[in-house]
Amino acid sequence: MSLSKISKIVLVHFFMTSVFAAADISLDYSVPQEDDKGNEITETNFAAKYTYVLGKSDSEKSTYTLGGDLRYTELKFDEPLLGKLKLLKVKIPVGGTHVLGKNILKWTLTPGLHGQSDDFLSESEFRPEGNFIFIWPRTNLQWLLGAGFSDTFGETKIFPIFGVVWKLDEKSTLTLMFPQIKYEYLTEAKNKYNFTVAPAGAQWQWKAGQILNNSEDVDVAISGIRFSVGGDFILNDSKYLYTNIGLVTNRKFEIHRHSNTSISGEQELVNSWFFQVGARF
To answer: Would you say 117 and 70 are in contact if contact means Cβ atoms under 8 Å apart?
Structure first.
């Protein structure tokens, strides 16, 4: 198998880059399994992403991308003092993919604003995120090693990325890459089905006065582990509809004060069911 073909397999399976301008919009809804008053958060997310390939180097060994990433979240608390929280993230990812001999280096830098949707520009927090991954393509295996900095686990922090993508046959691919596990099956009609286990987290700045008359801004985070099954259903060569359904376990809601991060609050949440629908084009 040629290097160019291996590279395409790696990039397609990880959604690491786009060979054209592409967009992704989705809506997901998460509702607690149990009626445990005072210990519930119902979560709704709307996300829209756009990626544009800026161009390739003269040698065609490097590709650069620029994009936009918007995520609107509503957290509806069962606690009357908190009610409903409307949150927003606006990010501008910049990335690159570089062919280094028989290997590939992929990186993304994602500066963005994270906060409440009202008074967003004045009250939100600026925070850079990013990752880099080094890929060793080897026939039907692709080994990966790297690191990321984001709120994937809830609280924003550095975490390792490592593992392997194993193309079992022409239709099946198994991804064992921390922090996710994913199995994909491609049908004759080019529809794709998957089973995925991955962290589901996010962090925002919550302005002063919104939590029991707090006197300063705080960071709030929600986290969990998402088990899902789903499918990508092809409309034509570049348009897909997709759905995912599953369970979020190990859910937590955390609050961290800016002035003293050792003073924080943490609430364990009940498991929740979730459903997601979206489109790529």
So the answer is: no
Q: Strands (DSSP E) along 15-102, which ranges?
A: 22-32, 41-56, 62-77, 84-91, 94-100
What DSSP designation does 153 have? T
So what's the pLDDT on residue 40? 83
User: Which of 209, 203, 200 lies closest to 88 in space, CA to CA?
Assistant: 203
Is 90 exceeded by the pLDDT of residue 208?
A: no
Provide φ and ψ at 236, rounded to 5°.
Answer: -155, -165
- Sorted by where each begins, the domain ranges of the chain are 3-16+42-268
Cis? peptide before 179, omega within 30° of 0 = yes
Q: Cα separation of 145 and 198, whole Å? A: 17
Q: What is the pLDDT of residues 151-202, one digit of tens each?
A: 999 999 999 999 999 999 999 999 999 999 999 999 998 999 999 999 999 9
Distance, in Å, from the CA atom of 126 to the CA atom of 256, rounded to the nearest integer, reads 16
Tell me the per-residue pLDDT of 76-130, one tens digit each, with 9 for 90 and over.
Answer: 988 776 678 899 999 999 999 999 999 999 999 999 999 998 888 877 889 999 9
- Tokens 């193309």 belong to 167
CA-to-CA separations, 159 to 131, 149, 178, in angstroms, rounded = 9, 6, 9
d(CA 146, CA 102): 17
What band does 247 get if pLDDT is binned at 50, 70 and 90? very high
C-alpha–C-alpha distance, residues 205 and 118, integer Å? 12
Q: Taking every pair of C-alpha atoms in the chain, what is the biggest distance, in angstroms?
A: 62
- What's the whole-model pTM score? 0.86
If we measure between CA atoms, which residue out of 131, 48, 62, 60 comes closest to residue 90? 48
Residue 33 CB partners (closer than 8 Å, separation 6+): 247, 270, 271, 272, 273
